[in-house]
UniProtKB/TrEMBL annotation:
Keywords: Exonuclease, Hydrolase, Ligase, Nuclease. This is Ligase-associated DNA damage response exonuclease. SMART domains: Lactamase_B. GO terms for molecular function: exonuclease activity; ligase activity; RNA endonuclease activity. It comes from Allopontixanthobacter confluentis. Residues 12-175 form the Metallo-beta-lactamase domain. Its EC number is 3.1.-.-.
Amino acid sequence: MIADFSWIRPEPHGIHVVPADCWIDPSRAVDKALVTHGHADHARGGHGQTVATPETLAIMKLRYATDEGATPVSYGETIRLPGGVDATYIPAGHVLGSAQILLEHGGEKVIVTGDYKRRADPTCPPFEVTPCDILITEATFGLPLFVHPPITEEVGKLLKALKDNPDRCVLVGAYALGKAQRVIAELRAAGHDAPIYLHGAMERMCRLYEELGVNLGDLRLVADQEKDAMRGSIIVCPPSALNDRWSRRLPDPITAMASGWMRVRQRARQRNVELPLIISDHADWGELTRTIEEVNPHESWITHGREEALLRWCQLHQRRARALAMVGYDDEDD
């Protein structure tokens, strides 16, 4: 008979691993944190000890200027925590360094996925399906309407807009960690070898990706260029800069946005996006349900998004599930 898993408790500000007295992705500073990846709704500074992949620790050092108490754990490596708990970090396929955390205690297995996707991504290792007793899954795009198209189609739209408008530029809004680098890498994979120009806020993370082994090709800062030199080019910026005064220095930009939320037309209109690109670093509805089927846990705990629909799907498919009430989770401009 499977136990009640009282040794792991979902709290409003994080997952508490009770025997080890540590927290997974806590939204406030704690003595010991296990972190799945570097996005701000999962990672933060101020912890006494932070356990994460080397890539995530490097990202956290860059973003939060902290590396005290950093404990690196490689993919596939198991560490022993106090109270007889083992933790293993497994690729999540979300962004560089992202990991699922497999926790084992008393013969019971729990996986905290963090954020994840099932599509191939040239900037990070793919998600690995790992059987467990309890799967704690995100549900950012946990509605049936969210079906992400192949990224080759979206990159094709971007390149077509560029070809059809040689005297303009295409300005792509993309989240600074993960999305921007993936868009650039996919453009390179599609044969776009021309310089890609960056808003200044994107440079440090792109350079860190390159230091960590991800080749992004010829990247140049917008601030270093003459306006006419960027005609017929792709420029990547934070979503907040799409309609900012900064964009006025660009040659008649076509505004694009790379996000899973571009499936919702109202979101594109709200941001004055001319070219919506449905590119997400999260699992869509079909990938969420397929993951539950393939992992086949005794019970699924659902958090971080559209919990009710995925909970209902589990119920209709005779799968035990519960929704968690967590705080501090945002859309990440995905």
